[in-house]
TrEMBL record, chains A, B:
This is TetR/AcrR family transcriptional regulator. Residues 48-67 bind DNA. Residues 1-11 have a biased composition (Polar residues). It comes from Actinocorallia aurantiaca. It comes from the Bacteria. Residues 1-26 are annotated as: Disordered. Keywords: DNA-binding, Transcription, Transcription regulation. The lineage of its organism: Bacteria, Bacillati, Actinomycetota, Actinomycetes, Streptosporangiales. SUPFAM superfamilies: Homeodomain-like, Tetracyclin repressor-like, C-terminal domain.
Length: 210, 210
């Protein structure tokens, strides 16, 4: 039975499984949890395959065979996060929905539990092409999913039909990422509101029209 | 004579010196050049105090005494860069000036010579509080200097007098940094234009008014 499960479930095929059933998926999830815990404690520069193997309880040779480097561990954690479900806001107002999305971004960096992990994954992407690709994939997927709030606003007549929804999402979150990751300036509620209001003003002016 | 020069010139006092005259300033400049060259070749994760000392030609004990860590080397390189003069655009049109500033940001990351160094410094900031503080200082200084193009536009009547100039600068560059450093998506000339047009539309709508 175990052999069959291993043969039919590659890590990629099980990527969409949130609560994994097969042994391969369970191993991958255990390694992800250990990776995130290590990143939270030590940052990306402190991440080692060795310590993840020990923490995960997965056999060391298995971990080393599948995830050869700290970058591969970070990239795979991002790959699994990409498949995680997340709460897409739907308040009936684009301004409210964008505000919720913006608040989610800020919380991801400032929450005491998730903040250190989020920062460590961004640091991993700044250092290794493998993690950078995984972060790009993660974020472009999120942009595409979040675009639904813009599509609904277009249907309600709040925005021009030609609005490039993903560009509006990028414009909303970019000023927050700039403060959170680049200038490391504090982000006040006014900064979040300003990011949303500026993106909306540009959208209404047709700047994001295709 | 040498002793006198050392006693009167601290690295901080000579920060404003572009072509340094004293021995301390010359040492600092040599270490900066070696740091930037090492960052270009090896990235921040490959930066060591040892290799910078060798490359700079400065006595190893001097380098180790003043710059104890790779983070200190990266932070000091940013500190010196902050004092460097740079070309502030003045084309007589805010749109043109913002476009020049945006192009400078993109070029800093995509130019074959400066790109690897810029990325390495951002990676350093993502990993160490010391470099993060130095990058924040560098960028907030640049925002303050670049605000001059907005002040001139306000004087020409292009924008509301209450416009927060530095917020408009941040809004202009943030979508570019988001693509360059976070999503690592390519930045097309259209992306640069859109960043400028969106920030301007928001500014005209009064979003950045204090």
């Amino acid at each position: 039975m175990k052999k069959t499960a291993n043969a039919t479930e590659s890590p990629l095929e099980s990527a969409g499984t949130v609560r994994p059933g097969g042994r391969t998926a369970r191993t991958r999830e255990a390694v992800r949890r250990a990776t995130l815990a290590e990143l939270a404690e030590k940052g990306f520069s402190g991440l080692t395959v060795e310590s993840v193997a020990i923490r995960s309880g997965v056999h060391k040779t298995t971990v080393y065979r599948r995830w050869r480097t700290p970058a591969a561990l970070a990239a795979d954690a991002l790959g699994l996060a990409e498949a995680d479900p997340w709460p897409l806001p739907d308040a009936g107002s684009l301004s409210e929905d964008l505000r919720s999305l913006a608040a989610q971004v800020v919380e991801g960096f400032t929450d005491p539990l998730t903040g250190p992990v989020t920062r460590a994954l961004v640091a991993a992407a700044a250092q290794t092409p493998e993690a950078a690709l995984a972060l790009r994939s993660y974020l472009t997927t999120r942009h595409r999913q979040a675009a639904a709030v813009v599509h609904r606003a277009v249907e309600r007549g709040e925005l021009p039909a030609a609005t490039d929804a993903e560009e509006l999402i990028r414009a909303t979150v970019a000023p927050l990422y700039y403060r959170l990751c680049i200038t490391t300036e504090p982000v006040s509620p006014e900064d979040t509101t300003r990011a949303v209001t500026a993106a909306l003003a540009a959208a209404r002016a047709g700047v994001f029209s295709r």
